[in-house]
Design a protein that fits this description.
The chain has 330 residues and is an alpha/beta fold. It contains 13 helices and nine strands. It has a single domain (32-329), classed as Bacterial extracellular solute-binding protein, family 7 (D-Maltodextrin-Binding Protein, domain 2, 3-Layer(aba) Sandwich), CATH 3.40.190.170. The structure holds 3-deoxy-alpha-D-manno-oct-2-ulopyranosonic acid.
C-alpha cells in the first residue's frame, strides 16, 4: 500500500537523522515556535482548552500558534508533518498512529475504554509506556497527554429506527479515512465511506453519505444536527486524541520549561475533559429540541458483534498478547 510505504519511509528518515541531530537548546530570549494543526473547529472544547489553558501557560518561553479547521495540514497528515520537521504539534488519534504502528489500533477499537477516567488511567499506566517510547523513537513525536473527545454515537439523516447492527446494513456511514476507522464502520454493521471531517456537513446535506459518528459535543459544534434526523446512542468508542509535540522541538527546552510544558498539556487535557463530560450530559435535550430522535439501541448487540469482529480480525493480530486483559483490569 502506497501510504504504508511512505510512512515506513518517514520512520526510516527519522531514525537516520536522529543519529546526526545534536539538539540545540534555545537561547534565553529566543522563544520556541509551536504551530499546532488540527481539523477541530475553534469552538471545540479541545481547541478552547489548548488556546486558553495551554497557550498562556507556555507563553514565557514559547509562541503557541494553533491552526484549526485543518487550515495548515489535512486531517491525518499532521504526524508525518511533525516527523518531517514541518509542524511542531497536533492532536492525534490512535487511528492515525495505527497507520504507522499497527498495534495502536487496540486503543481505537470499539468498546475498549469504559469511560474518560479509564482512558486516562490507561494512558498514564505502565502498559502505555512502551507505546509512547515507540512513537518517540521511531517517529520523533512525543505523546504528552490524552484528551477526551467523548463517546461516539451514530448520527443519521435516514428515518429508519436502528436497534441492532443488522439495521445498519446498507447505510453509507462516513468514517475518517484510515483502515482502523473503516474497520469500525464495518463492525457497526454499516457500509463505511472515507471522508475528511471538514467535508462531512456537506456530505450529509447532499446525501453523499447517510450518516456519520461523533461524540455529541462535536455534533453540536459542527452543526450536524441541521442536516440529520437521528442520534443513536451506541457509545461504541470512548474516543481520545493525544496532544503531541515534535521531540526535536521539545528537546530544545530546558528541563524546567519541559516540565512547565508537560503540566500545561495535562491541565489543558483536564480542562477539556471536564467540559466535554458536562456537555455530553446536557446535549441530549439540545438535539431533541432541534427535532432529532435521540434514543438508546440494543447496545449489547452492538458490543458483542463489534468485539467478536475485532478479535477475529487482522487488526488484533498486531496487539501485544494479554494487553486487552490488562486494560480491562485497570
Ligand atoms: C472525525 O473526523 O470524525 C474526528 O472526530 C476524528 C478525531 O480523531 C479527531 O481528529 C476529530 O475528528 C477532529 O479533531 C475534529 O473534531
Amino acid at each position: 500500500m502506497k501510504t504504508q510505504v511512505t510512512r515506513r519511509g518517514v520512520i526510516a528518515a527519522v531514525a537516520a537523522t536522529s543519529l546526526m541531530v545534536i539538539a540545540g537548546v534555545a537561547g534565553a530570549q529566543e522563544k520556541l515556535k509551536l504551530r499546532l494543526s488540527a481539523p477541530s473547529s475553534v469552538t471545540d472544547q479541545r481547541a478552547v482548552a489548548m488556546t486558553t489553558v495551554f497557550g498562556p501557560a507556555v507563553a514565557d518561553f514559547a509562541t503557541f500558534e494553533p491552526h484549526w479547521n485543518a487550515e495548515l495540514f489535512k486531517q491525518g497528515t499532521e504526524l508525518e508533518a511533525i516527523s518531517r520537521g514541518n509542524l511542531e504539534m497536533s492532536i492525534a488519534s490512535a487511528q492515525e498512529l495505527a497507520e504507522f504502528f499497527p498495534e495502536f489500533s487496540i486503543f481505537a477499537s470499539a468498546y475498549l475504554h469504559r469511560d474518560a477516567a479509564h482512558q486516562k488511567k490507561v494512558f498514564e499506566s505502565d502498559l502505555f509506556k512502551p507505546f509512547k517510547k515507540m512513537v518517540e523513537d521511531k517517529l520523533g513525536v512525543k505523546l504528552l497527554s490524552v484528551m477526551y473527545l467523548g463517546r461516539r454515537q451514530l448520527n443519521l439523516r435516514t428515518d429508519k429506527k436502528i436497534n441492532t447492527p443488522e439495521d445498519m446494513a446498507g447505510i453509507k456511514l462516513r468514517m475518517p479515512g484510515s483502515e482502523s476507522w473503516m474497520f469500525m464502520g464495518r463492525a457497526l454493521g454499516a457500509n463505511p465511506t472515507p471522508m475528511a471531517f471538514t467535508e462531512v456537513y456537506t456530505g450529509l446535506q447532499t446525501g453523499a453519505i447517510d450518516g456519520q459518528d461523533n461524540p455529541l459535543p462535536t455534533d453540536k459544534d459542527a452543526k450536524f444536527y441541521e442536516v440529520t434526523k437521528q442520534i443513536v446512542l451506541t457509545s461504541h468508542l470512548v474516543d481520545l486524541n493525544y496532544i503531541t509535540i515534535s521531540k526535536k522541538a521539545f528537546d530544545k527546552l530546558s528541563p524546567a520549561n519541559q516540565a512547565k510544558l508537560q503540566k500545561a498539556a495535562d491541565d489543558a487535557a483536564e480542562s477539556g475533559r471536564q467540559k466535554q463530560l458536562k456537555l455530553e450530559d446536557e446535549l441530549v435535550q439540545f438535539f431533541k429540541d432541534k427535532g432529532l430522535q435521540v434514543y438508546t439501541p440494543n447496545v449489547d448487540a452492538f458490543r458483542s458483534k463489534a468485539q467478536k469482529m475485532y478479535l477475529e480480525s487482522d487488526l488484533s493480530k498486531a496487539w501485544p498478547k494479554g494487553l486487552i486483559e490488562k486494560i480491562n483490569a485497570l
